[in-house]
Design brief:
Layout lengths: L1 H35 L2 H22 L2 H9 L5 H38 L5 H26 L3 H25 L3 H26 L7 H11 L2 H22 L2 H14 L1 H20 L6 H34 L11 H17 L1 H5 L4 H52 L6 H18 L7 H11 L2 H8 L5 H13 L2 H4 L1
Helix pairs in contact: 1-6, 1-11, 1-12, 2-5, 2-7, 2-9, 2-10, 3-4, 3-5, 3-8, 4-5, 4-8, 5-7, 6-7, 9-15, 10-13, 10-15, 11-12, 11-13, 12-13, 12-16, 12-17, 13-15, 16-18
Length: 488
Amino acid sequence: MFRQLLRLSKHSITYGLGVAVSQVVAFFLLPVYTRYLTPADYGGLEIFQATLSILSTIFVMGLTSALFKSYFNYSDEERRKTVVGTAFLFLTGTSFLFLLILMALAGDFSALLFGSVEYTFYFRVIFLTLFFDVGILVAFSVFRAREESKKYAIFALLRFLTAAGLNILFVVVLHRSVLGILWGGLIAAFLLYSILLRDIIKNAKLSFSIAELKEMLSFGLPLVPAGLAAWIMTMADRYFLQFLSTPTELGLYSLGYKFGMVIQGLIVGPFSLAWPPFLLSIAKEKKAKEVYSSVLTYFVVIAMFAALGLSVLSKEILIVMTKPPFYEAYKVIPLIGLSYVLFGCYFVLNAGIWLEKKTKYLALIVGVGAAVNLGLNYLLIPSYGMMGAAVATVISYVLLPVGSYFVSKRYYPIKYEWGRVAKILVAAGLVYVGSLFIRNDSAVIAGVLKLVSLLGFPLLLFAFRFFKPEEIQKAKDIFRAAPGYVKR
């Protein structure tokens, strides 16, 4: 079992390395953005990015996930290339048609979301970015299917660093503000698409199979409502804040959300990329269910520790990295971080849904979460602003793993280690509450004290007898096998 878990960890870490470097660079760019953008500007940028996100879900039509599933239906390389070629040709054609329609409607998007046609060109920039994104997503899906996690990480990092460099040029040097950031994203997408096009052609047979397309659409289209519902849960609160609160609240929430999404970027995102191929590849092994159960436990302990650290240090990080107008954003970070831990649990717990091909239930599960999210945003944001949005987010995200567990249990029951998971949550809760009593006028001193308080998490787990004897022994074996310089 440990061998399988190490394999999953290897690919998760590889995916995560590229993201980790991106997160570090993005972290150090925050002082730049907060110096050259106001909270209101930051909120406007979030509206453009939210729009790009929902349209991407529609453009792709679930076919990148379906490509991934169909790829594993065959062991023959030529059949696999036909799957890739069919998906690429179909998505290129449909996304080009969508692009033409959206370009004509850019003024309507601007009038609807900003009350003016002033931002028509901004929308045309993100629509063109979206076209290149579709091709990039196909290439990345092939990397995942072939378990080429290193290539995935390298190209994802290349795109981010290119966009970051261009953003500095456009925002700091050329003073193009939000439009400069959108331009940076477009150029980075175009350059990466141009590079990956050769790789797509190499791994695809440029022929079109109606049978394969039907198979992929039957799997992928049910994922679109689920994807849209997931978008609602992730991004719809920005539109509520835009219309029911103030631009400043929107900007503060957007910045705080970005910090909370560090859990998504460093933990959940890389894991979600490595999990499906791992899930499918060991499904026929005798101890598969035991492995799946352990994955949930280990994921929760790692993700909760990361979220705990982010939550405990959130205020001090913002004080050090941003300007005073942005400090209040720290209040939403713990709730957003917890939401993404729950989102990661949702991926683990829907194992049965994937294995038994019951993807139609994903739309129902996420749809219920989205409906609750919309209702709570409508009720809470007018009175509580960004905190109302954060509370709505965490409540709706609780529903995802709960729904996944009960549906998967019906078709593919797994005995999860709920007692151990409870110990993780109690330990994290105690440490977080304790950190609230640490206060000092110096953000640096307070940060150091809170950093030390995080040691309470593993200590409490030991006190709760969380770790199994075989896990402790395995850790000792890994330590003994480590190079001598690690021991020293």
